[in-house]
Amino acid sequence: MITVPSAFADPVYNPENGHYYEYVAFTEGLSSGGTDWWSIYASWLWHQSNSQKHWFDGNRGHLATITSASENAFVTALLPHDSRAWIGLSDKNSEGEYYWTNGEPFEYSNWNPNQPDNYNNDEDYVELLQYSGKWNDNTGNPTGITGYVIEYTPRVSDPVYNPDNGHFYELVYSSNTQWAGARDIAAESVYNGIYGHLVTITSQSENDFVASLSDDDFRPWIGLTDSWTEGEYKWVTGEPFEYSNWSPGEPSAGTDEDDIEFFASNDKWNDIYTFNDYTDSYVVEYNPYPRYNPDNGHYYQLVHAPDISWTDAKAAAENSVYNGINGHLVTITSKSENDFVGFLGPYIAHNWIGLTDRNTEGEYKWVTGEPFTYSNWYSGQPDNSNNEDYVEFLGFNKWKDTTNNYDKITGYVIEYSP
Questions:
Q1: Is a pLDDT exceeding 90 seen at residue 156?
Q2: Which of 183, 242, 355, 362 sits in a 20 to 30 Å window from 170, CA-based?
């Protein structure tokens, strides 16, 4: 017998395949300021992307892929009474041709009677019905859906090491993930304590290495876009855009073609609309080295260290050395430096910086003794709620004061100042 986990329980282990699973519920009727949040957060496409931002025991999540009767029974047992949950099956790309979003072969099915029926020519996504354990095709955001099932599949292999630059690269198959979703997933990915990002390709040798990761029929997202200003291409890391390898006739600058995919068939690049049916994967790059800031000649490194205290992060930063330079918790003295630090990590982050008022309330000081002349506080901050004497950097480039042992901290930023 399988015990249904609570909302705060760990995912449940399936001994037959070594994978973990969890059911995630959401609340119907969400609305705010006229926004129909239900239509967004109930949608299959949103959960297809969001499930990949979940990690457990070092493994990235994805919408469940059910490939046998025993796995179907296992997943069904996780669902609350009378619930209806999204799984990772769709025929969005071609009617009647079902595929699992992680690329596994579609060989097993367990359809409800007379399903799939593509009612009104608008049912491209598949739900699992708890009461029967059967499947039903449905529209992308029906009001009866109660949640979704995440499966955590162990990595088949570690990211691949590139000896030319010392970075690691990982190809992730994920059909129907939009560019922005892939960007966010990559930024929240971690390997050996290193945060990832959508790959930035800055040389022909790196382009050749990325090409070697996949078969010729793959079309992964890379970390290049001109979504901010048409024709002004930028890497997600803020690195200079100096090398390119466009496919003939590209970039074509067609309608809303702002994001860049890699054609594995010819190792070239193509600009394409983010809501397309062709891009099937993305490449995550893990850079283990501090990143250089040309504005001030300093180096910066984001360290993944969940739940670390500010005092422990300060000590760890000061014990770090790069190229003979001692580190310290980052001191941010300008908007350009603040923006640079923001490029280092994911949008959803809580990272320590080297600012505190622990000696005298309200008198903020940098750990290096530099003058405190620039700040970028989040609205209503600092508020010193519950004696908050230490400052964190939020993923959207704002600052907030908090306690030394704040349990949402994800890491800290080291600065190496020559």
A1: no
A2: 242
For residue range 292-322, what is the model confidence (pLDDT) as tens digits? 999 999 999 999 999 999 999 999 999 999 9
d(CA 205, CA 370): 41
Q: What is the pLDDT of residue 7?
A: 40
| CATH homologous superfamily, domain 292-416 | Mannose-Binding Protein A, subunit A (3.10.100.10)
Please check whether the two domains, 160-286 and 292-416, share a CATH topology.
yes
The whole-model pTM stands at 0.76
Sorted by where each begins, the domain ranges of the chain are 12-152, 160-286, 292-416
pLDDT value at residue 3: 36
**Res 241: pLDDT:** 96
Phi, psi for 8 (deg, rounded to 5): -110, 10
**Looking at the predicted structure, is the pLDDT value of residue 35 above 70?**
no
CATH superfamily to which 12-152 belongs:
Mannose-Binding Protein A, subunit A (3.10.100.10)
